[in-house]
């Protein structure tokens, strides 16, 4: 951590900063430039809160040198984390396809979707029972009833289920149905939920908020890993930008970047990122080529009847066509299991 | 609501959309253009989920004509909502100053800040007992202990307290100390929290997420007002942009816009919006001139000792100086009580 | 085009809008909703300036139904445009690799880079002679001298050259060296430059501004195609977002979207989009998998000595390694010429 | 400037960076941290291009300590620059109102607007003769003919004129009519135009691009001031964000920030920032309260007939009402001349 002092900073202000640094056991290293002084902090900077130092008089800004995340970092653990769920492995040299409806609506719908996913070669079933909806007037999900339908679909197909949990009080019931607990983009910084979901020691699918930076995603994952649970699957689902053609802008660069910076697997959700079903195929293939560990795709037996996100759901036929492109490409790229 | 069909849409696809619209009791009104057909939906469009229609084949996009929010709209209730809290009124022709430390740290600190706020002419004390922190390694607030310190400070000064609640399970204990429950920016779309906090019938200070649109803020407020509680104070605290000089970009236009579109009061938090104490004064005065109903400001007896957000907290002396500018300007602008 | 009237709009205001529409020969189609009236404009809406109608009293907003661009649209010309340059074809089922240094510095440097590009299998040489630099204190390019060095490198290798033109007065001299004129991101809306460069009838490489929407890119290309020159190569090079890890955020969705909406070829510049050399390979492969028509990559014989953008330039060895991945993948995906 | 090395950087790579720094006459100061080494650069860092060092192997990133701009900085010149134009002064303790139509259309229109501006108490007339338009099918301005109409309006009222120049080849003719040359947002980084307009030694109104940072605005202004012309008026006109209610988001914080960082005057254009005429008044008053040096407002005798930007133009009556609020507030705030 470097503390950059204002060019108007007094000797006393510099001294005061140095004292604070040494107070917590770190070493301060003063470097006087032509215009400004910079104080390097050497030692365990975890002990020093950046925001505390920013409040000191004479301080212009703080430049972090070490990364603020630790347990999720590839510097902490070099070997990629692989998470085994049913027949699927997330991480390493694997590529998993998670697919299913946006929200669970009827037994018929979710079972049809699950069978299609299984048949096409997908490994994990997704489906929402609890839905966070911008409008209080929109369909909010079937809740516990939806979980039961997911159980049925899972039993029929053998596919493990990933489903979202919104409220810490629902973790127990959701965890009894789900092989993977999903923390949605809107809850990425719901720190209580992160901690309590992590504590179940179940795999957690953590979606990046559409307004979060990669570093903030890592800090959110850090909350989970800190509970002793390193089975965290990161998911890029688009960031909010000024481009109106797509719902959000898929940050494809996040895939190779996260693979460099962290040991955790990173997958992509092209359905939510774009909101357009015609983009699912090219973006799924791009994710695979960019080195991603999987995709999560919305599929609905009858998108026109979907109670949410119909425009971004692909049909069962389209899913089959997509898998017929993913499989040979995954094999060509040397992915295991293809 | 207008449904714009693709220029490749078939007669059958158009018919199918019209049937769906009429199925829920609305009227469809087809208009064939040179290239494209547009279907107007007349009647109660609340019954028709936009996302459902978007999933239909042949649909290019949906153009909402009515606003998706209702209870918070100035079309629903023209008269501005005024919320009385202690000596302060939020809304109408009033201007309230809410001030206090980012987080409650010690009795000495919070009492000193409260006395300074009272003396300078502020009307409401702010202070965080539960802190949502990006890093699991940062100070997370004193919790219940902090609420007790706020009680002491409130009793000493007579100032009502606003403090944040993060978890639905804490609503009861927070509500026993707080005159106003704050829903923070990160929880703006935590719909369970909105609903359960609303149900207390206490005034709610709802902060706009740094990634939310004004319409999404209204939809979040709609969740609260739907519980029968219209005592909602909206708060603009900056949006995330590419400008690095300030932590976020204060959207000052949101103030007059929200006053036009809604009956709810709108205040500004310049401290979190900018992260820079030297901007608090000009932005507070700008908020007042733009017609805002108040400001929420971080003040700390010793910003250098603050456990969070020191760089954006002003000192007690600076608070006094600021109030000496706010008061005559509020009077000049005809605000009541000045 | 639909004109949405305010719910407070008077009969007179509605009448006035209808008159204006009919004045220019279009037909107005009034649809009275529960709360609001909407006026559909049928006929040649090119005759009606959206901004003019927006100024009318009682108008809430204008919803365009037709796209504002015409000549670049796939609705205007369904068949993809293919542009032949030297041995390369841009568009259709081809994938071109354009590579070379950010700026031309010395004969030795540009010739070494050109030979490496040729040897590795790249088809077009890039290199900047005129450089738009944020700082007046940065290296501004060699100008005419740089063009001469590009001529030498082109002659030595047989590679055609793409280079940027900044000023309409330089078009002639740049066009005498370049097979393709580049309009940089900062000049995407320099409409004089677009028109005058288009008029040369040379192929134009048009880079998307980091702050432009896809529609604005199309409108800029429309300026060129309107001169009778449809040899326009669109280039996505990242948009400005709040994510700090990369210089900009590559909008990979733009690739398949542009292929759907336009007949013009679309390539990607991963070097400028990210500013990080370790991302060039995964993003180039992602571009190929997403259906892009090519990539433009910075390569430098000695990136440490580069006068600009060293951190994003790959070495000659890295270029070879990249091409050894691009070539088999292009072949696998059925691209012609691989 | 601090060069942060990767934690994998070798001794040789560190040595290589130090040599490069010392090669240009600066001093390198190595500080070895627990994980990483940081090299401080002391001396004239203007000599060292940040991008060059970023290209070195082993370098993680460069942290600038000094600001990249010089001549426009308040560190270079502490005293605020005041620019006298006709009866108006821009800068210091003055507040100027610039008003007029978006584009010059007819003699009648521009003279009516000019008289209204004069009568209401505005000091400078704006009006576009050359219009940069996103669409090649939109009205592009009257050109030289428009300049003549501005001359007439200026003579009739005595108001000095500000008008935009788009092309370096038009500078001479525009400068013969205009008291102030305007560089539009789209041309903020047209470095040739900046330099050649600056060289006229006329006052330059430089609009901030909707995608530019404050630092980039300063760098653009630096191009002008470097020609020996420090008569530069900066203008904030909104930045592009994800908020759709307003055309752009006015960054009001830029006003006090720029006043701290630079000696140049800073004004606000609420018309282009928001695109909504009902926001002009509150944002003009907010600008005044935040310490801005002026506003630039679109006014049209008949906004419904305007050939561009009608929705954001206020009427002559509204201009008078606005001035009746600006004048007493400016007086109350102690602005000179009110």
Descriptive report:
Chain A is α/β, with parallel strands linked by helices and 338 residues long. Chain A folds into two domains: 2-63, 2-Layer Sandwich (Alpha-Beta Plaits), CATH 3.30.70.1140; 83-332, Aldolase class I (TIM Barrel), CATH 3.20.20.70. In chain A, 33% of the residues lie in helices and 18% in strands. In chain A, strands 13-12-11-10-9-8-7-14 form an eight-stranded parallel β-sheet. A four-stranded antiparallel β-sheet of chain A has the order 2-3-1-4. In chain A, strand 10 (180-183), helix 6 (191-198) and strand 11 form a beta-alpha-beta unit. In chain A, helix 6 (191-198) packs across helix 7 (214-225) and helix 10 packs parallel to helix 11. Chain A starts with a strand and ends in a 6-residue tail after the last helix. The model of chain A has no long low-confidence stretch (mean pLDDT 92). Chains B and C meet through strand 2 and strand 3 of B and strand 2 and strand 3 of C.
């Amino acid at each position: 951590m470097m503390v950059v002092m204002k060019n108007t900073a007094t000797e006393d202000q510099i001294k005061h900063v140095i004292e604070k640094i040494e107070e917590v056991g770190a070493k301060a290293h003063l470097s006087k430039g032509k215009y400004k002084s910079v104080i390097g902090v050497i030692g365990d900077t975890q002990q020093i809160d950046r925001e505390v130092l920013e409040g000191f008089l004479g301080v212009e800004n703080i430049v972090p040198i070490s990364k603020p995340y630790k347990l999720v970092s590839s510097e902490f653990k070099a070997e990629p984390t692989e998470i085994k769920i049913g027949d699927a492995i997330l991480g390493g040299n694997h590529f998993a396809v998670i697919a299913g409806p946006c929200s669970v609506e009827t037994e018929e719908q979710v079972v049809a979707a699950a069978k299609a996913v299984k048949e096409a070669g997908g490994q994990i079933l997704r489906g929402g029972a609890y839905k966070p909806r911008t409008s209080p007037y929109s369909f909010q999900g079937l809740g516990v009833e939806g979980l039961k339908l997911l159980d049925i679909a899972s039993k029929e197909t053998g596919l493990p289920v990933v489903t979202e949990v919104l409220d810490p009080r629902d973790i127990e019931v959701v965890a009894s149905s789900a092989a993977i607990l999903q923390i949605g983009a809107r809850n990425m910084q719901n720190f209580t939920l992160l901690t309590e979901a992590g504590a179940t020691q179940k795999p957690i699918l953590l979606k990046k908020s559409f307004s979060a930076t990669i570093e903030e995603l890592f800090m959110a994952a850090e909350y989970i890993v800190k509970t002793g649970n390193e089975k965290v699957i990161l998911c890029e689902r688009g960031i909010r930008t000024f481009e109106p053609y797509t719902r959000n802008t898929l940050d494809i660069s996040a895939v190779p970047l996260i693979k460099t910076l962290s040991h955790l697997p990173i997958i992509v959700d092209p359905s939510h990122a774009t909101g357009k079903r015609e983009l699912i195929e090219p973006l799924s293939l791009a994710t695979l080529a960019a080195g991603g560990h999987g995709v999560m795709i919305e599929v609905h037996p009858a998108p026109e009847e979907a109670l949410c996100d119909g425009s971004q759901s692909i049909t069962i036929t389209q899913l089959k066509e997509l898998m017929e492109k993913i499989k040979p490409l995954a094999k060509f790229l040397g992915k295991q299991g293809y």
